[in-house]
Structures are given as C-alpha cells and as structure tokens.
Amino acid sequence: MDPQLAHVLSRLTPEIEAALETYFPSQRGALGVCMRYATFSGGRRMRPVLCLLGADFCNVQRKHALPLAAAIEFLHTASLIYDDLPAMDNAVHRRGQPPAHADAGQGVALLAGLSLVSHAFGLLAPYPSLVELASRCVTDMSSGQAIDLHGGDRSPRHYLKTTALFHLALTAAGTAFGAESLKMQALGAFALHFGTAYQLLDDADDEGAAQLAAQSASELALAQDALLAFQGDSAAGHLREFANQVLQSVPAGGRSDH
After folding, report:
1. In this predicted structure, what is the pLDDT of residue 126?
2. What is the Cα–Cα distance from 225 to 213, expressed in whole angstroms?
C-alpha cells in the first residue's frame, strides 16, 4: 500500500469508530442490543472511508464529514441485516458471526434495520439535497436486492446495491457542502465503475471467476480514468490507490464479507 494512503487510513479508522459511537442511537433493550451487534461486528468500514476520502477530494473538513460517514455506515449495516434474512440471502454467518436475525430473532432484526435507516436520515436531515440523494440510494439498493431475488441478471442494474451506496458515500460531503461540479461528476463516475468492479469480484465463483475478474479489471480502469483530470491531486490519488487495495483484498472465488 502507498505509505501516504496507509498513514491517512491509520488516522481515518479510529475517527470513524469514534463517530459511530458518538452518533449511535440511544436505543435500549433487545432492539438496541441488536443494532449494536450488527453495527460493531467488525467489517472494514469501506463506505465511511470512501465518504471521508470523497470529503477530502471536495475540500470538506473532516469534522463536517464524520456524521455523514456514520449515517452511511448505519445505512450499510441495515442493508446487511436485510440481506442476511431467510427471505433474502438466508446467510448463516456475517463477518464470522451469526447474522443479526439468528442472534436476536427475525422480528427484532427487522426493527433494528428500520431504526438504523431512520436514524441515518436523522443525521442527514440538515442537508435537504443529501436527504434526497440518500432516498434515491435506498430505493436503488432495494431494486438491486429485488433483482438478486430473481437471479440471472448481470446488467448494470444488478449492481445497484453496491454502486448506489458507493455513490452516496463518495458524493455525500460534496452534495452537502456544495463542491464544484467537475469534481462531483468525477466522483459519480468513479463510484459507478469502482462499485461495479467490486461487485463483479464479490460475485465470482470458481466457474466464472476468470471472466468476472477480467470484467472487474476493465471497470477498475474506467474508475481510475474518471479521476485523470485530477492527476496532481493527492486526495484523488488516495481514492485510486484505495480502490486498488480494496479489489486486491477480495478473496479468490469472491464473497467478501463486507
């Protein structure tokens, strides 16, 4: 990993964990336990990292971006709760542990996901344009999950679950605080191609791994090209390098544990 990026990430990770604690909803009882279990069960915090790297690219101060990063991780956590349900992916583990519904029961898990989504929108409420963007993101993620339920669709819409949240993460700070349009367009293109590249690898199985890996490499190249106009920008360089590192970390045969 690029030493400069490694230094940036070493600072971002504790800031993200602290923000999640700071902005975590004050919910008690079984519901609160389930929400905490799902949120603090590990994971790489890739989406909040993208949010903060996107904020750096848009010259938004970290203190303003951290609540947005926390909200995005709460949305992501809710999506994982729902993905794992028996009626969806019927997962038996998440990050090496039983999924939320197996630990707390399906009813509590459903309510935990709803509460996390509601709380995330509360954190985004001061920024109406960002609320609108997040609303579209959740709708697109739901559409992507609906496509997953029927299987067989490898069109770009199949990857909505991933690309929509990547787009929200990368553009949240710029949307909230008014970044220049060229940077926002570049982040949007980067999110689309990086998200697709990631999901292609994550979907790979032994039979189709080689073809999907080649398609992922093509998408990664398009993601890198989206930031070419900002070649001398250190924040753009961090985004490109982070995308490389993430894709290299997806295990052979796919199925990253997010």
Report:
1. 97
2. 18
Please report whether residue 254 resides in a domain. Answer: no
The pTM of this model reads 0.93
Q: d(Cα 154, Cα 151) in Å, to the nearest integer?
A: 9
Closest to 193 in 3D by CA, of 120, 250, 247: 247
How far is it, in rounded angstroms, from Cα 99 to Cα 122?
Answer: 25
The dihedral sign for the CA sequence 121, 126, 128, 133 = negative
Q: Which structural domain range is residue 158 located in? A: 3-249
Domain count, the chain: 1
What does the alpha-carbon distance between residue 202 and residue 251 come to, in Å, rounded to a whole number? Answer: 8
> What is the mean pLDDT, run by run of 10 residues, along the chain of 258 residues?
79 95 93 95 92 97 97 97 88 83 90 97 97 96 84 63 95 96 97 93 70 90 95 93 91 59
3-state secondary structure of 212: helix
Facing residues of 94 across strands? 97
Please report where in the chains the tokens 């336990």 appear, as a residue. 33
DSSP letters for 110-172: HHHHHHHHHHHHHHHTT-HHHHHHHHHHHHHHHHHHHHHHH----SGGGGHHHHHHHHHHHHH
